Amino acid sequence: xxxxxxxxxxxxxxxxxxxxxxxxxxxxxxxxxxxxxxxxxxxxxxxxxxxxxxxxxxxxxxxxxxxxxxxxxxxxxxxxxxxxxxxxxxxxxxxxxxxxxxxxxxxxxxxxxxxxxxxxxxxxxxxxxxxxx
Length: 133
Hints:
By secondary structure, the chain is of the alpha/beta class. It has helices at residues 12-24, 37-46, 63-72, 91-99, 112-125, and strands spanning 3-8, 29-34, 51-55, 81-85, 104-107.
């Protein structure tokens, strides 16, 4: 069974780097990408990801607001969200993200190995239906 990842970021270079690094890990993942909140909502209407990697600073909507909208959807409320930001990097930003429902928070430049560990956790626990963190 394929693991579904939705990457939402307006930084095309970051998306390509992340996609390449995931391919190197040789995981069986279906990766969808979006560069705006509008495009993401269109994808989410048809696509149910197992995890979302979300940049906080999207051009058309703040990532925290996007995540809150996702969490209000019955179908998407349990999808883990990993937030990423180049601007919001203070400990308070991280705490706020986690308190508002993010499962993890990474500052850019992202340590790809650490991000991979987080993604791998959800891949390995997908079928259990329980978030053990």
